[in-house]
Amino acid sequence: MPTLFIVPTPIGNLEDITLRALRVLREVSLIAAEDTRTTRVLLQHYEIHTPLTSYHEHNKLTKLEAIFAALETGDVALVSDAGTPGISDPGYELVKQAIEQGIRVESLPGASAITTALVGSGLPTDGFVYLGFLPRKDRALRDFLTAIARERRTLVAYESPNRLVDTLKAVGEIFGERQTCVARELSKKFEEFQRGTVSDVLAHFIEHDPRGEIVLVMAGAAAVEPVQWDETQIRRALNERLEAGESLSSAARAIASESGWERRAIYALGVSKE
Ligand code: SAM
Average pLDDT in the 160-173 region? Predict the structure, then answer.
């Protein structure tokens, strides 16, 4: 019975691929690859000569028919540029439809930046939430962080180097001081784990321009003692932030994440003070 194999590939170091993945890539009739040029480098390294076809973000729906046609006569392997297909990469639609059509799907274990970063971060691994890529726009990012501020499990997100500093600032303002780890260039020459409080990590990346590929790992709210501030504490924190020039809405949002108070209640205190 023809099989669709989901095959993870290395996230940097070409050695990070399993023997089974190499055998499958050698034996299938066709490899559907996010970027055929990237995959060709891997195949050349391991002297694999299987035909390639493209399967990427922009043809992931129109290409399904061709891939299912190929599956009528032989096995197909799906690979992405790096790591596990379907994880912030094309794959989901193909797997879903293959299952619906009764095609056998085999998902091979292998590299992903999520688990590599999480386990090396030193933050709790017993439960975690994968957030994908964080929203790009500042307002959307802040709303997103506010909505998950009370999540108790460790948080794992992909982030681009040019947004990292702004994202860490927003994390610090909305989550307060939490243990954080930036895992950069995993398995590559300039691999780096920056671990510490959000402020520590932010200070590092203000000084050293972040480059390359990045996973951001943040402690969940469980690591923070459950707190309920009294009104005096709220007023003091508000005063400090407003005197430092922060807007009332930003201050209310930040204090809400630390104090156990609703943002609206803090905002109302601020307004009554004006
Ligand atoms: N499917 C991949 C996986 O399983 O990890 C993720 C693909 S996603 C399009 C690419 C993002 O993953 C990068 O922008 C970065 O955030 C993260 N990433 C991939 N390789 C990485 C590496 N070697 N070091 C750090 N982050 C990496």
Answer: 97
